Amino acid sequence: MGGDIGTGAERGSAAVATQPESTRRERLRRAFEPALLAVTLTALTAGGIAWLLGAHAVADACWIAGTVVAIVPATWWVIDALRRGRVGVDLIAVLSLVGTLLVGEYVAGALIGVMLASGQALDAAAERRATKDLRALLEHAPHTARRRVGDEVQVVPLGDVVPGDTLVVGPGEVVPVDGWITSELAVLDESVLTGEPMHVQRRTGEAVRSGVVAAGGAFEIHARATAEDSTYAGIVRLAREAAAESAPVVRIADRVAAWFLPLSLTVAGLAWLLSGSATRAVAVLVVATPCPLLLAAPVAIVSGLSRASRLGVVIRSGGALENLGHATTLVMDKTGTLTSGRPAGADIVTAPGGDGAELLRLAASADQLSPHVLAEAIVQEAKMRGLTLSLPTDVAEQAGTGVAATVDGRRVTVGSLPLPADAPGWARAVLSRAALDGAVVAWVTVDGDLAGALLLVDPLRRDAARTLRRLRSAGLDRLVMLTGDRREPAEEIGSVLGLDGVYAEQTPADKVNGVRAERESAVTVMVGDGVNDAPALAAATVGVAMGARGSTASSEAADIVLTTDRLDRLADAMEIARRSRRIAVQSATVGMGLSLVAMGFAAFGYLPPAVGALLQEGIDVAVILNALRALRGDRDRELALPDDTEAMLHRFSAEHDVLRDELSILRDTAQLLASGDRPAAHTALRRVDAFLFDTLLPHEQAEDSELYPALAVPLGSGEATATMSRMHAEIDRLSRRLRTHLAQADAAGGLRPDQCDDLLACLYGLYALLRLHFVQEEENYFTLAPEAERADGSA
């Protein structure tokens, strides 16, 4: 209470500021708070002891001293508020203190003094607790780095590090700048950036971001940015601004406090005038200080900011947090927001008689030295499949065309290729499939002959559908996508996710106009991750940047930055925002209501000043404790997963990644059958049978016997997984039907013509069923467990 009470948001800013003047003020305030409380409490206690011993004069002297000690800072708070152009409600506290001295209610004055001092200490403690996570970001920032030059390691100021330096990171130290790992292995704690407690392993050549902690042994990195341009520096800049602006609910509190002052003085004056008792007027003033309102709003809002930062969501201001809490429209970019933003291998198609694995190995080997995003995706796909790559020679790259290189004595090209009019049928089928799937085609030639094609897509985020459902349940009633991508893939994603509007082929200017149009009718949130999204983010009511790997421009233009590459953190932030605002309003309303009731009792003489002081203290404590609830999650909405269940989800998710790459064997076999090549289809059907019964069905059976029973408890019942079990039964039925066809073909010495139609139906049906089943499991179950980030920073 008193003084700083009306400036909770300003103190939140001071808590995360680093300027020397702010630091000195903070230290003085921290020293003053316990001192004031100790002096006033000592005076009250000493007076009580003296009164019990019959020394009433001594008791009065002690209580008067405690009252006077409290008057001094309270008077300064009033002067300071007036100097800043604000009518301080601390005037009520000064008047009540002076009033107790004038009417001889010395014990009430001492109680008010303790109330002011304890309210100040409670408020400050709540502020420090609420800003703990924000301050931890600043305290975590390194100031030096270990730079290795030859065999010598030097400790240098962080500002001296330049791209290209070799840096040594010791156990427990913070990675000082963004870079690439040059050691064989690094074990990292990335919780500061991602909010996830699980340690991750990074190997030679993998990216590492500043701010993460070495959780294992020492390792070396190759710096690729200065400290100022690195990930953690941007987060620190945002944290410094996190509470610099008062939230709207805090500003409302200030306005309410302004009219509460004349109301309190009027009630006190009427009580004195109508009863003729100045004591009643003093009692009204004692319970009139609007501490509940002034404490609740700042503490709840800053608590929300702190909780969000703990989950990897940095919010620039309390105003952004509150605006997010009552937004009704969400506008999103597609690439990097709803999709992963990085191409991934969707399919491998070879010329007749070709080997898909060898085709991918040759293409990835040729692409190893290319910085192109598609080349990186091809190399990553080969590594995920465990292929051993060869070092290319005579590498030549032409912008917009692709790469040519010699690999194991063969000349390999990878990239775009104009197909001649007489292109083979399989190549024309690739173009048709790419158009339907929204895929990019990388053609591969070997020694001048067209050997095959790699189809790459930008996959939808696993958590996209679930996150959008959560956002709708949180109050967003309009979801819109603005993307520069082509209309066909954009509309396909919009249909899958159930978006209310899809606008494709948008320029940055178009995006800004689209956001402004939405903002005219509703509070609008815009989410994006690229440089071209920065103007639209700035135009929205609340701009949200996918900052884990997004551009600096988009992060600087945004009000909120997701420091982990997880879209579901936006839903978390929105739930935190709504809950923080609800708690702030709830605390203020209840607290002020109790104070108004107490004023009425005091005006009619039912509440003496001393009792009123004790009652007001209880109200203050209750309000602070209630506002601090914003630090905790909404336990009714949280789903607690046992550690072994979470580990199981990660295990089955990893198996899905492997199985998904193998599903193309079903469609490839069907295409061989449709083309009339029954001998090749017969051979392929044997591979399908081996895949189904040696790999896929054991995976499905393990899910039924291990995963689904484990999920029954956190999800509330086994019915939550019953439909998935039914799909397992259908997958098993189709697999056994295909095995029956294989047995008949083996017995007859080849596939019979009468088998072809049913085989085609089984193969295409099983392919579609498995794709749908995988997506449903990933959206409904696998997203319940936090997903570890990959080396490139994507989830």
TrEMBL record:
Residues 649-785 form the Hemerythrin-like domain. Belongs to the cation transport ATPase (P-type) (TC 3.A.3) family. Type IB subfamily. It is found in: Cell membrane. Residues 140-239 form the P-type ATPase A domain. It holds the Pfam family Hydrolase. It comes from the Bacteria. This is Lead, cadmium, zinc and mercury transporting ATPase. The chain crosses the membrane at residues 35-54, 61-79, 91-119, 256-275, 281-302. The lineage of its organism: Bacteria, Bacillati, Actinomycetota, Actinomycetes, Mycobacteriales. Keywords: ATP-binding, Cell membrane, Membrane, Metal-binding, Nucleotide-binding, Transmembrane, Transmembrane helix. Coiled coil: none annotated. It is a multi-pass membrane protein. Residues 1-22 are annotated as: Disordered.
